[in-house]
Protein: Cell surface glycoprotein MUC18 isoform X1
Amino acid sequence: MAFLLLRRALLLFLHLCLLTWSAWGKVELTVNENLEVYLGDSAEIPCHYRFTDAKNEARFVMIQWFVRSAGNRARMRIFYSDGTQQIIDRNTDYSGRINVTSDQKETRLLIQNVQLSDEREFFCQINGLAAGNAEGKTHLRVFARPEAPVIEGILTGISVTNTAPSKVASCEVRNGFPKPNITWYRNKTPLMPKPGYVNMLTLVTRESSGFYSVQSTLEYKVVKEDQDSFFFCEVSFSVPGAVRTMDSHRVNVTVHYPTTTVELRKDSPQGLVQEGDTVELRCQGDGNPPPPFVFSREQEPDADLESSGDVLVLPSVSRKDSGVYQCRPLGAVGHAEVKGEMQLNVHYLDPAVVVPKDSEVMFKGEDLVATCNALSSLATTIVWYKDTEQVGQGNTLHLQDATYETSGVYTCKVTVPSLPSLHTSGSVHIIVQGGPQLVGVEEEVQLEEVAGRMVNLSCEAKGHPTPSISWSIVGSQNWQEVLSKENDDMTHSMVSVRVTSDVSALCNASNDMGAEVKAFRIKAIPRVTTTSPFSPVEGSGVIIVVIILCLLLLAVLGSVFYFLHKKGKLPCGRSGKQEISKEKTTKDDIVVEMKTNTKNEDAVLLKAVNGEKKGPNDQVTVV
Ligand SMILES: *[C@@H]1O[C@H](CO)[C@@H](O)[C@H](O)[C@H]1NC(C)=O
Ligand SMILES: *[C@@H]1O[C@H](CO)[C@@H](O)[C@H](O)[C@H]1NC(C)=O
Ligand SMILES: *[C@@H]1O[C@H](CO)[C@@H](O)[C@H](O)[C@H]1NC(C)=O
Ligand SMILES: *[C@@H]1O[C@H](CO)[C@@H](O)[C@H](O)[C@H]1NC(C)=O
Ligand SMILES: *[C@@H]1O[C@H](CO)[C@@H](O)[C@H](O)[C@H]1NC(C)=O
Structure:
C-alpha cells in the first residue's frame, strides 16, 4: 500500500515537473512543458537534444517545429531545416513572426509579439535517421492584465424587511486573459455564497479580441448594522509565475429599517415653561428614513395636532396646555405600540391678592393682619415693603399697636425662585385714624417777652382725618396766622402775636375723633429803658440785711481770734488766718451780687434763649 502511494506521488512529481523526458529511438530530448509570457512579449522555446548512440553518430539531422491549437488534433508545420536548408513555412500564422536558431545540441524557436491565439502547443521534432528521432511538446501560455475593476453600488435604500437578498452592488472587470475571478467583500471579510442570504451572479464574456470580461452582481440580505458597512470587489488574475489581485472602490448602502422606538422631547424653551412661552416639542424615531409623525394629547389620542414635520409648535401656552403629549410614526402598521410620550408642565403665577383690599383704616393702637396670596404652580417667596424698606416676609404681615407712623402703602412682592421671570405684587394702603396728636411734649408753654415785641407761636398736629387748628388768644388784639399747612395727616399753624400785656393763647387741634389743646402763656415784661432797675424800698431792705450779716460775721471772727491768742496755740504767722477769711469774704460777695442782680440776670437769660442782641421790636418764636 505504502509503496503504491509512493509510486503515485513520484508520478505526480514527474508530471508537475517542467521537464519532460522522452526517449524515442536513441535521441534524448529536453523541453519545457509550459512557457508563460505576457501578451506582446517575445517567447523563446528551447529544445535540447542529444544522440545517445555514440557508434551511430548522426551525419544528417532534420529539425521541424509544429503547432497545434488546443482541442484540435491537426498539427501544422511552421519550420523545417536539414543540413542544407532552413525553411520558415509560408502562409502560416507564424510565417513573419518566428526565427529558429539551432546548433549541435539545441534548437530554439523565437516567436515575436506573442498573441492571445499563440496559446497553443509547440512541438519540436528531431530526426537523425538511423541515429534515431524524438519529439518534445511545450505549451505556450499567454497572459494579459485586466483593466481595474469598476463597482457600482445601489443608490436607493435597501429595506431590511425584504425577504430575499437584494442587489447591493455590481462589479465588472474587463479585458483580462486568462479569465479573472471576482471575490466580494463586506468590510474586510470575503463573502461566500449562502442560500437566502448571499448570492453572486457571475457573467463571463469572451470579447471578440479574445479577452475575457467578467461581471458579478452581489445580492445580499441587509441588516440594520450594514448602514455602517462597506462593500467592494476584489479581482484576482494570473500573471507569469504568480497570481495578482486588484481591489475596487468601496461602496456604502443606504439601509432602510422600520421605526421601533420613538422619543418625544422639548426642544425649546430650555428649562421650565411658563405661560406665554412658545413651546417646541420634537419627535425622534430610530427608523430610516425617518417617517412622518403625528402628534396628539393623551386625553384625545384620536385628535391629531397640527405639526410641521417632526416638530410640534405650541404658541403662547397657558396652564390648559399642561399634560401628556404623544407622537407616533404615521401609518405605523404592526407597530401600534411605537410612540413617544412626555409630560409638559406650564407654570404660572396669578396676580397677588392682598387682604384687606386697596386701603384699610385702622384706629390708633389697633392691630391688623394683612395677607398676600398669589396662586402659582411653583413655590413662591413673599416679601413686604413699605416704600423701599422691607417690613416683613411670608404671606402675612402683622401690624401691631398702630401709630400715625404705621400709615402708608404696604406692597407685597411675590417671586418664584425657580423661575425668576415669574413675579407679581399687590399693595394695601393703611390709614391710621385717630384724634389729633400735637407735636412736642409740653402741654403748656410758659414764656416771658418784652412788651411790644412780636412772638411767633407754632402748633403742629398729626391725626386722621387731618386735624384743623383753631386759635383763641386772650390779651392781645394784634395777632394773625402767618402759616397754615396741611399735608399727610399733619397740620401746621403759626400765629404771630404782639405782646402788649400778658397773653394766653390756646391752640385747639381737632378732628372727628377728638381735640387736643396746647396752651401758651406769655408774661409781658415792661421795657428796661422806661423803668428804674429796682425800687428804693426793696433795695434799702436788702442793704440792711447785708450789713447785719457782716456785723455778725465780724463779731464771730473777733471772738475766735481772741480765744486762739489767749490759749497761745496760734503762732504769730498770718497765712492760715488769711486764707479762711479770704474764702469767707469771697463767698459773701457772690451772695450779695446774686441778690442784687437777680432780676436783670433773668432778663438776660431769657434774651439769650430767644436770640442774641435783639432790639426792642424783635420778634420771638415760641414752640
Ligand atoms: C530572423 O533573423 C534574421 C537574422 O538574424 C533577422 O534579420 C530577422 O529580422 C529575424 N526575423 C524575425 C521575425 O525575428
Ligand atoms: C479562479 O477561480 C477558479 C475556481 O475557484 C480557480 O481554479 C482559479 O485558480 C482562480 N483563478 C485565479 C486567477 O484566482
Ligand atoms: C460610507 O459611510 C461611511 C460612514 O457612514 C462614510 O464615512 C463614508 O464616507 C461613506 N462612503 C461612501 C463612499 O459613501
Ligand atoms: C376745641 O375745638 C373743638 C371743636 O371745635 C371743641 O369741641 C372743643 O370744645 C374745643 N376745645 C377747647 C378747649 O376749646
Ligand atoms: C415769624 O413768622 C413769620 C412768618 O413766617 C416770619 O417772617 C418771621 O421771621 C418769624 N419771626 C420769628 C422771630 O421767627
Remarks:
- The radius of gyration is 69 Å.
- The first helix runs from residue 2 to 16.
- The CA atoms of residues 347 and 370 lie 26 Å apart.
